[in-house]
Amino acid sequence: MLYTVLQILALAALGFFLTRLWGWSQNFFQSLSRLLVNVVLPIYFFARISQTDVSDLRRGFFFPLAAMLVIGAGLLFSSIISSVVGLKGKEKRAAVALSGFGNSGIVPLMLIESFPATVPQVADTFGTLMPTMFVGVYLLFQSPVLWSLGNYLVAGEVKKPRWNELLTPPLLGILAGFIFLIPPLQRLLLNPVLPFTSLLNAAHRLGQGVFPLLLLCLGSIIAALKGRVERQTGLALATAAVVRFTLIPACFFAVYFLFLKDLHLSPAVLWVLFLETHTPPATALAIMSMGKNDAVVSPVLLWTYIAYLAVLPAYLLLFLSLPGL
Length: 325
Description:
Order of helices and strands: HHHHHHHHHHHHHHHHH
Mean pLDDT: 86
Shape: globular
Helix content: over 70%
Strand content: under 5%
C-alpha cells in the first residue's frame, strides 16, 4: 500500500518539478492533459465498461444517488462551517464548492488501477473492471452538477452551461460503454473472429498509460497554483479540509457500520463508495475560477492535495481493516 502512495507521490512530484524547477512549459502539460482527458480517457472508459456484465450495471444504479448525497453533505457541512467562522462572499462560495465537489474521476480511477499492482490481493477482492464502471455511473451525476453548480459557486456568475461542459468526452465514453453492454452489441464487440477485439486490445494498451501521464499533469497544475494564504483563504482552506478529510469520511464509516455492513454489498461497490468519499477537491474548479476567484481556489487546492497524500495511507488502512469486507 505504501508503495502505491509513493508511486503517486513520485509521479506528481516529477510533474511539479518539471514545471517549477526545470522550466517545462505549462502549455505542454495543458496540451497533454487535453489529449488525455478528451481522447484517451473516453477510450479507456469505453474499453473497460464495454467488457463488464449488464448485471454488474444493475448493482451500480444507486451510485448517482450516492453522488447526490456526498455532494449534498459536502455543501451542507461547508455552508454551516463557513457561516460559523465568518466567511462571506466569494470566499464562502469557494469554500462550499471545494468542500462539495471532489476529484471523483481521476483520483479514484488512479487508485483502482495502481493499487492492485502493489497489493495483488486487492485485485482479487475488488477487481478493476467493475469499479471502473461504478465510477462511470457516479460521474453521470457528479460531472454535470460540478460544471453547473460548481461553476457558479467559484465564478459567481449565473450562466447557462454549454452542452460540451455537461456532456464531456469522458461521459460520452462512459455512455458508449453502457450502450455496448446490450448483449447483441457486446457479443459483436467481443467476438474473437472479428477485428473489434484487436481494437479493444489497442484501447487497453492506450489506457494503461493514461494515469501516470495524468499524474504528471496534476503535478504541473499544482506547481502553477499560488500557495500564498491570506486569512480568509486560510479559513476557506480549513473548511474544505475539515469537510473533505474528516466529516465526509466519517459519514462513510458511520453509514458502513449502521447500514452497509449488513447489506452484503459487493466488495467492488464498497471500494468505490470508499474512494468517492475520500477524495481531494476537484481540480476543474481551478479552471472555472480563473480570473474570478483563483486567489482563493488555487491555495486551497495546493494545500489540500499535499494533505491528501499524507492522509491517504491512513484512510486505506482503515478501509481494509473493516470487519465484513
